[in-house]
Amino acid sequence: MTHDAEAERARSPAHGQVCYLELPAADRTRAAAFYRAVFGWETGTHYPDFEAPGLIGQWVEGRASARDSGPVIWVAVADMSETLSVATAHGAQVLQPPAPDGPTRTLAMITDTEGNPVGLAAHTLPP
Description:
- This protein has 127 residues and is an alpha/beta fold.
- The protein has one domain (3-123): 2,3-Dihydroxybiphenyl 1,2-Dioxygenase, domain 1.
- 24% of the residues lie in helices and 34% in strands.
- The strands form two sheets. It has a four-stranded mixed β-sheet with strand order 1-4-3-2, with helices on one face. The protein has a four-stranded mixed β-sheet with strand order 5-8-7-6, covered by helices on one side.
- A hairpin with a 4-residue loop joins strand 6 (93-100) and strand 7 (105-111).
- It is globular, with a radius of gyration of 15 Å.
C-alpha cells in the first residue's frame, strides 16, 4: 500500500468502526505466514504487520493469547472446507467444527499458530 493510500484510509473510518487490530504472537513471522497463507492477508517483511480487507494491524510479541477468554476475531471465508484444510495444513487446530448458524451462514472456530481463537464465517445466498 502506498503512503497516500494509507493516509486516505486513516481519514475515512466511520465512528465506531474497528480500524486497527493487534494480535498476540510468540513469533510474528510465523503468525504472518499463517494469515498470509490462510486468508491472503498482505504482510510486512521487516516488522510483521498486516493489511486485511477493511483493517490494518500488527502482531504483538510479549502479549499472551487468550484462547478461552476475551474477544474473538471472525473472518469471512469463501469456502469453509478449503479454508479449514489450508488452515490445519499451516498449523491451526479446529476448536469447533463447521455448523450451520441460520439458513445462510456456517460458522467454525480454529486457533492460529499462536493460540489465538479465530472464528470462520462462510455465507451463502438465501434459497
